[in-house]
Structures are given as structure tokens and as C-alpha cells.
Design a protein that fits this description.
By secondary structure, the chain is of the alpha/beta class. It binds CIS-heme D hydroxychlorin gamma-spirolactone 17R, 18S (HDE). The site of CIS-heme D hydroxychlorin gamma-spirolactone 17R, 18S has 26 residues, from strand 2, strand 3, strand 4 and helix 9.
């Protein structure tokens, strides 16, 4: 394949790969450097003999301006920072591949969707939206899910989120929305949170946000892992096949290990105890060979069916319920390689919904249309000019040639005299591909449009509540409880009572019970639905199980993490048996002890109880052994560990004497998901069953009485 990748600077070796799948691409990535066995040099390639001392006049004398080595080093350091992203500043990313299951030629001519044998390299960046680059991972927020496909026809960026709708319908409102949700301008608080007056002021005044705000108050906003998130392109796009036939398409990502979320108490504690929780989880999963995978699903709507729905396909605050248009799974994304350098790759990667390839096209969704402008514009100041496409992580694998020249940081050295088209001097090259020459160029889908130049919102965008009601109705009881808890938490932090009251009015239009439950927690009267709420629109689908995480959870313990609590004198054989059994199921066990060292012969503690608290695990097993059980029972931290796991509805197992710790912690006896016994096999079997649903939901009410 032709490539525009630059040759490596001389003396530069490539970093060894962490996975074999991407070998071909890596061979092209000659810009990766490795300093092993290389001399320290200046940026001019001059070897540095002394990197410890500035050049000075005499041992105790002043430093000399002449010291080009010190000056170069400090000057570069002084300019190390670039502006962080205005939104989605906190992110982490990984390399991988995408493969289509079978040719989608019927739907699209996009080359990367034709051949099931072809692997298209991807770079995927997940992010939070509100917080700054250093904010915590587990905050309540929407997550970005941005995928860059390096296809043979150029880069295609699917810049989506982990929720299928958005807060606003028109791009012109984005700066208002972002200013409202960001830390408040007078005191820059709060960081990584929407629980503050300006956010709720805005959304309570803008009812089109009702549906998305409900999603952000749901478990979707506190994912267990980036690997357990669904992803959505949100907008309706178009597929175009080789015959020129167009169809509407919505894109979905579905994690193959299923979806799961944190509990709010866990999320808050994790933000303090491991603010890199998601980033670390993604990194370790890839390092362990637990490659995260998502299936790409599409919902296809024929052009002639555009107006058949009770919502507008162009309205980004609406989903197409799967009951109306089922998902067709067309391929798989696998993340199999961690980046080598956070700044060079994850920070400098530049996504843009306008990066599109032949066979895919936009629609007139007014939010999407605005995004097509915004992303390139923002990169120009964030990445210092219009040549950001030359930064290695952004370079397409497809060759690129055009008359664009110069500007800051230009890297390409264009040969030839003509930087214009048409030209006769360079033989007319490079030439456009239609109508005569090679073909395969991007051609915009022909769509008839007609209208007056007006600033209006289409009446078909007016229904702000019925799909929010659909979402609420589709939740299981625990999910409804979490939503009530989230609105109550957030609104209790709002200082201005009229804002709280106004938001309750919006909730009543979604569902009066929801509004009444939140109102009770806020000490306010429960409002009634407004008279005209139902006139704005109705959803023909009343319930959609696909919207619930719990309803569609698949039992599995794959990649889940289990703490084995053990102190000195623990029973080594049973610890080994637990480790082996969990490994066989694809789960991971860590031995957690009051101190580091060896709690049992041949067993090393992986971490301390305080270093890796229960919130970092999906389940806990207390090891057997009299002395170990005694030490743990006398430890407040160990008792807290199991109590907290109980509160967070996690599977708990105790082997032999390990049961003493549960008794010392006054854990309610005979509870679901609490398994005790001396038969390791039996205990493990029941423990794994309990953990496979991620949480023991039936325990929720009991757990409330356990202190946080
Ligand atoms: Fe973005 N968005 N956005 N956005 N967005 C940015 O681009 C913007 C929207 C999304 O990992 C910025 O490079 C406007 C919807 C992701 O690097 C900026 C509007 C969706 C990311 C921008 C939206 C997204 C961004 C900031 C309303 C889901 C992170 C830095 C019209 C479909 C990508 C940057 C990454 C980033 C603008 C709305 C997703 C400012 C104007 C809807 C995942 O250009």
C-alpha cells in the first residue's frame, strides 16, 4: 500500500510491538523512536557529554549564555504544554483493528466495509466531557467514544458518545451548554461534576435537554469500565452503495463482555482513591491480553421511510427504538495495543466528524452540521496550525496529495512547481478523480433541498419528553432507584430553590412518580405534568429492554476482578485453588493483605487493604486459616472491606475460618451472594454464579442500612 509516512530520522529505531496483529501498520510507523543503546543528543543531533552541569564561569560563577545545551533544553521545556481540549479534555486511548463480518456492499461502498479478511487499523479515544485533563475518571458524566479508522480510502472518524442522544438540538447552543456545565466562571468549581447551579439553571430552562439529562442521571454516566460501555454515533448518517442508493444509518457499539456500571458511592470514592481507575483498567486489560471488543451495529432506514416515525430522524435528542428498527451487527472492533506515548498519541489525536470516506455521508441534523465546522477549527488553536493532519497519529495511511502548502510546522516536502489545479506544468497532477481519471473520489449524496433562509426549529423537533418517558419506563427497579438518587443528589447541591423547582417541573413531564420521588428528597411539593406536555408528541414504543443495562446483562465473570483477603497464616492451598478457578473463568484475582509480604507459603500479597480497597474489585473472597482470620477480624480496615463490598452488592465468599471476618463485621447472615463453607469447590461455584450478574441486586434494600 502506498503511504505518506515519513522515513525515520537516521539512528532511530522502532519500539517493539506489544501485539502482533498490527504488525503491518507498525512497520509503516517509522516515527516511533527508541533510545535504547543510543547516545543523548541535542535536537540538532549533537552528542551531549555532560547533562548535569550548566556551563559557568568558574566553579561558583554565573551561568553563561553561551550554553546552547542548557538553553535548548529549558526553552523546549518552557513550551511543553498545549491547550487541553475545550470539552473531552480527560481521555485515554488505544490502538486496535476493525473487521467487518461480511461485505456490506448492498448498503455502502466504503472500502473498509467490504472484505471480512481485511483489518482496518483504528485508534480509539474515550473521554469524560466536563472535567479538565487531570480530573477523575469515575465522575458522573457522558463519555466520549471516538474512533479513527485509518482506511485505505482515507481516515473515517466516528466521533460518538456512550449515550445515544444529546443535550441540545442545534449547534448554536453548544457554547451555552458547555459554559453552563463547566466549572462556574467565578470560582472554577466544581471540577468533574454537573451538580451545580449553572448546569441545572440551563437544562431546566431548555426542555430539549430532558431526555439526555435523564441518561446522564442513569447508570450510563458512571460506567464500571470503559470496556463495558456502549457507544453511539448519535446522529443519523447516510450509507451510499456503489449504485448510488442512499439509506439512513445509525451507528452503535456493543461491548462483547456486556455493559456494567458503578454505584454512585463507589464512583465517588474511586474518584479520590484511584482517579485513574478507568484509564488503568483499560491499560491493564490490554496489557493482560484481555483485548476489549465491541461489535459495530447499524440501524438502517430506507430513504422512503424517513417520515414514518413519531420523531424526526434529524433530531439528535431522539433514538430509533430497537423495537422499530433492529440492530444489524456488521463487524468487530478489537483494542490490542497500548499507545507508546500519551502526549504524542492520545493528546495529539484530532478527531472530526467531517473526516468521512466514500460510501458514508452526513444528514441535515443541525447539531452534526455545526460539528462539521467546530472540530477542525478547534484543532487549529489546540495543535498550533492547520498542519495537524501531519502529526503521526493523525496521518492517514492512504496517500495524500493536494495544493495545500506551508503554514506552521509543515513537515511534508512537496516536490514540483505547481501547487494549484488545473495545471499544465506538473502534468496536471494531482488530479481530481471524477469524472475522468481513476475514480473512487468522495461524491456528496445528491439530496433535494428547498426552503427559505430562516432561523427556525422544525416543529418535528418539538417533542422533548416522550422518549425520556420511554427511557424511564424501560429501567429496572434498581436502575430507577439510582436515577432518583442521582437527581436528588445533584439538585440538593443546587443553591437556588427556583432552579430545583423548575427542574422538578421537567421531571413531572417525563413521569410524575419520578418527579414526586425526587421532590420528596428535596423537601418540595411534587409538581404535576404540564397541560400541554402530551400534545408535543407521543412515542409509539412504550418500553424498550435494550435501554436497560440490568435487563440485558449477560451472566459472565470474564475480566472481573476479585480480592482474596488474606493475612499471615492464611491457607495457601485454598488461595491457590481460588486463583486457578477464577483464572479458568477468565477472571483475575489479587491477594490483598494488611501488609505487603507473604501471607502464606508461596503466596505474595499483591497489594495492601488500604492500597487497593474493595471499590476496586467486583467481588471478595476471604481466605481460610485460623491466624489469618483472627488478624483480619481484629482489623477495622478488613471489616470495612467486606462491609463495603456488601453495601456495593458484590459477591462475597469466605473459606473455612475466613467466615469469622464476616461475623466480626456483623454482616447480615444468610444473605444472597454471601457464600461460606469449607468446600472450596462448592464455595467458588456459588461465588462465581453470584458475581456473574455483576451485582446481587436483590440485596439492595438490606445494603442501604450498611454505613457507607
Ligand atoms: Fe464534540 N467537540 N461537539 N460532541 N466531541 C469536541 O473537538 C462540538 C458533540 C465528542 O477524543 C471538540 O477536538 C460541538 C456530540 C467527542 O478527541 C470540539 C458540538 C458528540 C469529543 C467539539 C459537539 C460529541 C468531542 C473539543 C455541538 C457525540 C472528543 C476538542 C454541535 C456524538 C474527541 C476537539 C477526542 C470533542 C465540538 C457535540 C462527541 C470543541 C460544536 C453530539 C467524543 O470541537
Amino acid at each position: 500500500m502506498a503511504t505518506n509516512k515519513q522515513p525515520p530520522p537516521s539512528g532511530v529505531a522502532r519500539t517493539p510491538s506489544q501485539s502482533n496483529t498490527n504488525k503491518k501498520v507498525e512497520a509503516l510507523e517509522t516515527f516511533r523512536t527508541d533510545a535504547t543503546n543510543q547516545a543523548l543528543t541535542t535536537n540538532q543531533g549533537v552528542k551531549v557529554a555532560d547533562n548535569q552541569n550548566t556551563l559557568r564561569a568558574g566553579e561558583r560563577g554565573p551561568s553563561l549564555l553561551e550554553d546552547f545545551i542548557m538553553r535548548e533544553k529549558i526553552t523546549h521545556f518552557d513550551h511543553e504544554r498545549i491547550p487541553e481540549r475545550i470539552v473531552h479534555a480527560r481521555g485515554s486511548a488505544a490502538h486496535g483493528v476493525f473487521k467487518v463480518y461480511e461485505s456490506q456492499a448492498e448498503l455502502t461502498k466504503a472500502a473498509f466495509l467490504q472484505d471480512p479478511l481485511k483489518e482496518t487499523p483504528v485508534y480509539v479515544r474515550f473521554s469524560t466531557v466536563q472535567g479538565s485533563r487531570g480530573s477523575a475518571d469515575t465522575v458522573r458524566d457522558v463519555r466520549g467514544f471516538a474512533v479513527k479508522f485509518y482506511t485505505e480510502e482515507g481516515n473515517f472518524d466516528l466521533v460518538g458518545n456512550n449515550m445515544p442522544v444529546f443535550f441540545i438540538q442545534d449547534a448554536i447552543k453548544f457554547p451555552d451548554f458547555v459554559h453552563a456545565v463547566k466549572p462556574e466562571p467565578h470560582n472554577e468549581m466544581p471540577q468533574g461534576a454537573s451538580a451545580h447551579d449553572t448546569f441545572w439553571d440551563f437544562v431546566s430552562l431548555v426542555p430539549e435537554s430532558a431526555h439526555m439529562v435523564l441518561w446522564t442521571m442513569s447508570d450510563r454516566a458512571i460506567p464500571r469500565s470503559l470496556r463495558t460501555m456502549e457507544g453511539f454515533g448519535i446522529h443519523t448518517f447516510r450509507f451510499i452503495n456503489a449504485q448510488g442508493k442512499g439509506r439512513f444509518v445509525k451507528f452503535h457499539w456493543r461491548p462483547t463482555i456486556g455493559s456494567a456500571s458503578l454505584l454512585w458511592d463507589e464512583a465517588q470514592k474511586l474518584a479520590g482513591k484511584d482517579s485513574d481507575f478507568h484509564r488503568r483498567d483499560l491499560w491493564e486489560a490490554i496489557d493482560n491480553g484481555d483485548y476489549p471488543e465491541w461489535e459495530l451495529g447499524v440501524q438502517i432506514v430506507e430513504e422512503e421511510d424517513e417520515h414514518k416515525f413519531d420523531f424526526d430522524l434529524l433530531d439528535p435528542t431522539k433514538i430509533i427504538p430497537e423495537e422499530l428498527v433492529p440492530l444489524k451487527m456488521i463487524g468487530k472492533l478489537t483494542l490490542n495495543r497500548n499507545p507508546d506515548n500519551f502526549f504524542a498519541e492520545t493528546e495529539q489525536v484530532a478527531f472530526c466528524p467531517g473526516h468521512i470516506v466514500p460510501g458514508i455521508d452526513f444528514t441535515n441534523d443541525p447539531l452534526l452540521q455545526g460539528r462539521l465546522f467546530s472540530y477542525t477549527d478547534t484543532q487549529i488553536s489546540r495543535l498550533g496550525g492547520p498542519n495537524f493532519h501531519e502529526i503521526p497519529i493523525n496521518r492517514p495511511l492512504a496517500p495524500l496529495h493536494n495544493g495545500q502548502r506551508d503554514a506552521m510546522h509543515r513537515q511534508t516536502i512537496d516536490k514540483g512547481q505547481a501547487s494549484y489545479e488545473p495545471n499544465s506544468i506538473d502534468g496536471g497532477w494531482p488530479k481530481e478523480t471524477a469524472p475522468a481519471a481513476a475514480g473512487g473520489g468522495f461524491e456528496t449524496y445528491t439530496e433535494r433541498v428547498e426552503g427559505s433562509k430562516i432561523r427556525v426549529r422544525s416543529p418535528s423537533f418539538r417533542d422533548h419528553y416522550s422518549q425520556a418517558t420511554l427511557f424511564w419506563n424501560s429501567m429496572t427497579d434498581p436502575e430507577k432507584d439510582h436515577i432518583v438518587g442521582a437527581y436528588s443528589f445533584e439538585l440538593s447541591k443546587v443553591e437556588r430553590k427556583p432552579i430545583r423547582e423548575r427542574q422538578l417541573g421537567i421531571l413531572a413531564n417525563i413521569d410524575e412518580t419520578l418527579a414526586a420521588r425526587v421532590a420528596a428528597n428535596l423537601g418540595l411539593p411534587a409538581p404535576k405534568k404540564s397541560a400541554d406536555a402530551d400534545e408535543l408528541g407521543k412515542s409509539s414504543v412504550k418500553e424498550s429492554p435494550a435501554l436497560s443495562i440490568i435487563a440485558k446483562a449477560k451472566p459472565s465473570v470474564k475480566t472481573r476482578k476479585v480480592a482474596i483477603l488474606a493475612a499471615r497464616g492464611a491457607d495457601a492451598a485454598s488461595i491457590k485453588a481460588v486463583q486457578d478457578a477464577l483464572k479458568a473463568e477468565g477472571a483475575h484475582a489479587k491477594v490483598i493483605s494488611p501488609t505487603l509480604g507473604s501471607p502464606a507459603p508461596g503466596i505474595e500479597a499483591d497489594a495492601t487493604i488500604l492500597g487497593m480497597p474493595s471499590i476496586m474489585f467486583d467481588g471478595v473472597i476471604v481466605a481460610g486459616g485460623k491466624e489469618s482470620a483472627k488478624t483480619l477480624s481484629e482489623s477495622g480496615d478488613a471489616r470495612h472491606f467486606v462491609l463495603e463490598a456488601f453495601k456495593h452488592l458484590k459477591a462475597i465468599g469466605a473459606l473455612g475460618d475466613g467466615e469469622d471476618l464476616l461475623a466480626a463485621a456483623h454482616l447480615p447472615n444468610g444473605e444472597e451472594g454471601v457464600v461460606v463453607g469449607s468446600d472450596v469447590k462448592q464455595v467458588l461455584k456459588r461465588f462465581i454464579e453470584a458475581m456473574s450478574m455483576h451485582r446481587v441486586w436483590s440485596r439492595a434494600q438490606k445494603a442501604e442500612s450498611v454505613p457507607a
